[in-house]
Specification:
alpha/beta, globular, four-stranded antiparallel beta sheet, single chain, eight-stranded mixed beta sheet
Length: about 325
């Protein structure tokens, strides 16, 4: 029987906490805890899905992963080296190897630039190739994402939403990244186009051996694309496991509510209990932040926030003290 190939960890987040001072003046400042003890890792060629409602900490996690913000405490490691130890050369390599694709690509394109310049720009900034080679690379990138090379001489406003997202993916691939951070990449697209983009991402991953951090509120797309899933609520991971484990054996009550809702929103009409506001980040409750929405909440839940992970089965973790499968 062939041995299972071991994958090395590409990205690791360990006990990440992110706090901000908010308010006006010096005396009235409050501390907002947006991330609390976030830990996960992404292996080479693997996709991790980060799922949660608006305000749960997904965007802050994205900024920490991309190195846009340094965490208040904890450690982010890429290829085994902490970002806190990075020098100028390290950051240059990191910026090339870790790219992002966002929800609305039109907002990240300069409307004055033709697609050719948009795709050539990362190569030009990093002094990669001659003008002719960059031109050819831009056309090959378009073909890689299923668009004609002739589109290179058009402006962004001339494309549909799905075509724009393909162009955004092409630009992210220009420097040969090892990790793509996909922040709601299909949520603004029509349902029929979503499937095409997801299939494209899947095929590119197989071909290029790229790792993905896939952030989404669309449960169906998460199930299709992801190998592992981290459920985030109020700035902490409440459940973590393989896609099969999360969907077939959800543990945390919050996870169960999200799966019932199908699409995660701030206020869902599909599930009665998902109608309460997320607690204030400047005035968090003493116990579990999900307590007011939880159908199995007890006094113990309100007394102390359960942050310790319990491994219910191999590779499947939850913070809930009343876990059941």
């Amino acid at each position: 029987m062939p041995q299972k190939m071991e994958r090395s960890k590409l990205l690791e987040l360990e006990n990440i906490k992110q706090q901000y001072k908010v308010g006006f003046g010096f005396r009235n400042k409050k501390t907002a805890v947006c991330l609390s003890d976030i830990s996960f890792d992404i292996e080479e060629g693997q996709t991790l899905g980060l799922v949660g409602e608006s305000g749960s900490g997904k965007t802050t996690t994205t900024r920490v992963v991309l190195g846009i913000e340094a965490p208040t405490s904890g450690d982010v490691r890429y290829k085994g080296k902490s970002l806190s130890e990075y020098g100028r050369k390290d950051w240059k390599q990191f910026r090339q190897e870790v790219q992002a694709v966002f929800q609305n690509p039109l907002d990240s394109f300069d409307p004055r630039f033709k697609v050719r310049k948009i795709l050539e720009e990362p190569l030009s900034i990093n002094n990669i190739g001659s003008p002719t080679e960059r031109r050819e690379k831009a056309e090959s990138l378009l073909e890689m994402v299923g668009l004609s090379a002739e589109f290179a001489d058009r402006y962004p406003h001339e494309f549909s939403g799905g075509q724009l997202q393909r162009i955004a993916i092409a630009r992210a691939l220009a420097l040969g990244p090892k990790l793509l951070v996909l922040d709601e990449p299909v949520s603004a697209l029509d349902v029929s186009v979503r499937g095409q983009i997801l299939n494209l991402l899947h095929d590119l991953q197989v071909e290029k051996k790229i790792s993905y951090l896939y952030i989404s509120h669309d449960i169906a797309s998460v199930r299709y694309l992801c190998d592992k899933i981290a459920i985030i609520y109020f700035g902490q991971i409440v459940e973590y496991g393989s896609t099969e484990q999360i969907f077939e054996k959800p543990i945390h009550p919050y996870t169960k509510e999200l799966l019932k809702a199908g699409v995660v929103t701030e206020l869902s009409d599909n599930v009665e209990s998902v109608v309460h506001e997320v607690p204030s980040v400047t005035d968090p409750p003493p116990g579990c932040p999900f307590a007011d929405r939880c159908p199995v909440c007890t006094g113990a839940c309100r007394a102390k926030n359960p942050t310790e992970y319990k491994e219910v089965e191999k590779g499947h973790f939850s913070t809930c003290i009343h876990y059941t499968i």
